[in-house]
Amino acid sequence: MPDVRQAVEHTTVRVPRSLVALSTASTYPEGCAAAFEIAAKLGYDAVELMIWNDPVSQSVAAIERLADHYGIPVAAIHAPTLLITQRVWGREPWEKLRRSYEMAERIGAETVVLHPPFRWQREYAAGFVEGVAAMQAETEVALAVENMYPWRARRSQVQAYLPGWNPVELPYEHVTLDLSHASASSSDSLEMAVALGSRLRHLHLADGVGTPRDEHLVPGRGTQPCVEVLGHLAETGFDGTVVVEVNTRRCRTRADREVDLAEALAFARLNLAVAGAS
Prior knowledge:
The chain is of the alpha/beta class. 36% of the residues lie in helices and 19% in strands.
């Protein structure tokens, strides 16, 4: 029988340097201030700021006050490139990205998350890959393009994004991997993480059961290999940010929302700790 005590003495737990942050989208319909408050209460390391219709999210001064008050830094900014934020900061997409990385520089965020263009943004899409590379040369903030998913109508798929929804196949320097989006596209997020290698800069931790809808379940409640992805990050020394981005809109109370977000944080921290020989 093996000596258990000796095995324990010769085992260390390896945890990557990555922060575990809370997306402000995870507290919707509550606003940015609620996200900072909850992140501080539950013990998150930072927040990812979603720029959307909430005026607080668009104000550097307001965000700096929240960060200082709660002692919670902003690790990343999500540019207003969603369908519901098409009118935030105007309609010119390159200007949105520029304002996003300039805001990131001012508040000390290391990453800007952005979506690929919609198919009807043809001019923007035509020069997107080259344009992101050129903009990346202007800033030290990582511009991390996020994986999306096909839109499905009845039994057919619609190519909603150009030049494509899958950044693994495109030469972006930095990529955000969203596990809920991987589920909606019927992709294996672990395979995507491995294929991305050092280009994987940022992770949106969530889950899904493989339906065409973007579910953003609490990790562990779906079928994506969330445990394995976090283990892969730990094993490879990932130094980006792991962001809990889950849907809590059905929570009836603040207390219910905090339970889900505490569970997601514990899941991330537990599975980022990998045992390895010392």
